[in-house]
Specification:
Number of helices: 13
Radius of gyration: 29 Å
Distance between the termini: 56 Å
Largest sheet: 8 strands, antiparallel
Structural class: alpha+beta
Strand content: 15-25%
Helix content: 10-25%
Length: 582
């Protein structure tokens, strides 16, 4: 879908209107907050008529509304209105008050409606936009869904009993709307472009078509949208708009078939097959974008709420998380990756705990993407014995910040030591507390001059930081080319404990990792076999690098330290550890 853009601007002192770009369920809107705090969300189709669509031009002027509106048939509150003329333009629109949270008329008598729910206005527009795109993929056999122009919501709140909404029905809707705050006490109107013509029922009554053809047309529409992956739970001939001509015939398209448009989408849904297909498409898009996250320059003009930043020589896309009032840094230069890491995509999905000592979890996101997320311990003093030399060094160093962990991971990869993939850093919006007796101020001091684009420190003592890594199941390049034939990553300690590798090989791998890190000036202050992975393919074979050596992949970075005054050549000798023990 074509995206829309309007230059972001502050409150207009003359009109009192505030404009901003916002994306809700993958639909781009220009959001206007009016002087009286009413909200208007304008789509790409409404943008040419953005001034006309302000409510003073059709709704809030009662005299104009009474003289220029017609109540349309149906069980909902729906009107055809001719707007006022603005800058020489006026428009016929349809305004319909959304019924989310209400009982569906006839749901107790109709099996198809038993488990249906009215779409929210934002869900409805998202589905209609998607349906319109699906309907225009073929030049022949087209159908024409009504154009969604805008969503209007007055600021004034209304008691639930007046709206007919049920609070229990709205709770799940509110939770699912992370991009916008859905208010169960405000009214929402969807505004569509008027389609010229009459509905199929009226056309039958006026002799333009007979009852059999009306039923055929209804079933044909159901079949056509079904082929495109959609269904309407309350199919009716009233939802089909045909266009009569003077000779008592209906207008035809170029193929000779009856030309018709579709209206009323409050019960529009995707089919299960389309839901599955969309998830697969979104996953494929993600894999391609991850492969190209540093090499493909993506124009950022459609994402004015996101900024490119560089921290410790790593490029990120930075932005606020509206749903939690937190912040997010996504590794790479592609703003389209940002939405994949919003907490609503992974935070509540089923997860498996990977560590007994830390909050580390594996999850499969709503986009069918495997991720590992870990609550950072930055700012907490390591629980070590200060009278043991090695543990004292760990206390003095402290836990790395998420940004340090990512910086070291990227450096290791660039110098020939494979790691798991750093994906994103999420700062929570809710406040947290660290006891002063366990507080380590070192990272807050060292990072205090590194600021976000809105001039706040990237590290805050009263926030949690969640580090998001790719779940290792194969290289990005491999999965982008062919999504399948996954690798299995096993930490070396687990591999030894379960007899996958011998004690001799385990100890050898530990020494090999230590030497490789030292050669590029890095030390793991607490090196164990759980800090790196060996990889096995789907046939049970050990994955080896281009030199025939087992590939060891670093997966823990919290105590990696850059050595001071390191004088050795930073380039690795690829033949280190050449004689691997059996």
């Amino acid at each position: 879908m074509e995206q829309i853009h309007i230059q972001q601007q502050p409150m207009n002192r003359t009109t009192g209107k505030k404009y901003e770009n916002i994306s809700i369920f993958n639909v781009e809107y220009v959001h206007i907050q009016l002087e009286n705090k009413d909200d208007l969300y304008v789509t790409q189709y409404g943008l040419p008529f953005i001034e006309i669509l302000e409510p003073d031009n059709y709704w809030t002027d009662e005299n104009w509304f009474q003289q220029n509106s017609v109540r349309l048939s149906g069980t909902s509150s729906i009107y055809k209105i001719r707007t006022k003329k603005v800058n020489g333009k006026q428009k016929d629109i349809v305004i319909k008050w959304n019924r989310m949270g209400q009982d569906i008329p006839g749901e107790l008598e109709c099996e198809e409606l038993a488990y249906a729910e009215f779409n929210s206005p934002f869900e409805e527009f998202s589905l209609v936009m998607e349906l319109r795109k699906a309907c225009h993929t073929s030049q022949s056999d087209r159908i024409y869904p009504q154009k969604p122009l805008a969503i209007y919501t007055p600021y004034k709140k209304v008691d639930l009993w007046r709206t007919g909404r049920k609070a229990y029905k709205l709770k799940s809707k509110i939770k699912s709307h992370k991009d916008v705050e859905l208010d169960m006490f405000r009214l929402y109107a969807v505004i569509y472009e008027w389609i010229k013509g009459i509905d199929a029922v009226q056309a039958c009554q006026e002799g333009f078509l007979d009852k059999d053809y009306m039923e055929f047309l209804t079933l044909q529409v159901e079949s056509k949208i079904g082929m495109r992956g959609f269904t309407v739970r309350d199919r009716k001939p009233d939802h089909i708009i045909v266009r009569p001509e003077n000779n008592k015939h209906l207008k035809k398209d170029r193929t000779g078939a009856t030309l018709y448009g579709l209206i009323d989408f409050e019960l529009l849904q995707r089919t299960p097959e389309r839901e599955k297909q969309l998830k697969q498409t979104r996953r494929h898009d993600y894999l391609i974008r991850q492969r190209d996250r540093f090499t493909k320059q993506v124009e950022n003009k459609f994402h004015p709420h996101l900024k490119k930043v560089n921290i410790f020589n790593i490029d990120y896309i930075y932005g606020h998380v509206e749903s939690t009032k937190g912040a997010l840094w996504v590794v790479g230069d592609d703003p389209f990756l940002f939405d994949y890491f919003l907490p609503e995509r992974w935070e509540k999905t089923p997860k498996t705990k990977l560590s007994r000592m830390s909050q580390v979890y594996h999850t499969v996101t709503k986009d069918d993407i495997n991720l590992v997320w870990k609550v950072s311990k930055v700012g907490i003093q390591p629980r070590m014995d200060p009278f043991k030399t090695e543990e004292k060094k760990i206390i003095e160093h402290g836990y790395n910040s998420p940004f340090e962990e990512f910086s070291i991971a990227m450096e290791l990869n660039s110098k020939g030591i494979p790691t798991i993939y750093p994906r994103a850093i999420y700062m929570t919006g809710s406040k947290t507390f660290i006891s002063k007796s366990f507080l380590d101020n070192s990272r807050y001091e060292s990072h205090k001059k590194i600021l976000t684009p809105d001039r706040n420190p990237i590290l805050k003592k009263d926030r949690d930081y969640i580090i998001i890594w790719g779940f290792w199941n194969g290289p990005d390049e491999k999965l982008a080319a062919k999504d399948g034939d996954y690798y299995q990553g096993i930490n070396a300690l687990f591999a030894y404990q379960n007899g996958i590798i011998t004690e001799k090989k385990y100890l050898y791998f530990l020494q090999m990792i230590k030497e490789k890190l030292f050669r590029i000036g890095i030390e793991d202050l607490n090196l164990t076999g759980s800090h790196f992975l060996i990889s096995i393919d789907n046939k049970g074979n050990l994955i080896k690098n281009e030199h025939g050596m087992p590939e060891l992949r670093i997966c823990n970075f919290q105590f990696l330290k850059r050595l001071q005054n390191h004088t050795m050549n930073g380039e690795l000798n690829p033949r280190v550890g050449e004689n691997t023990p059996a």
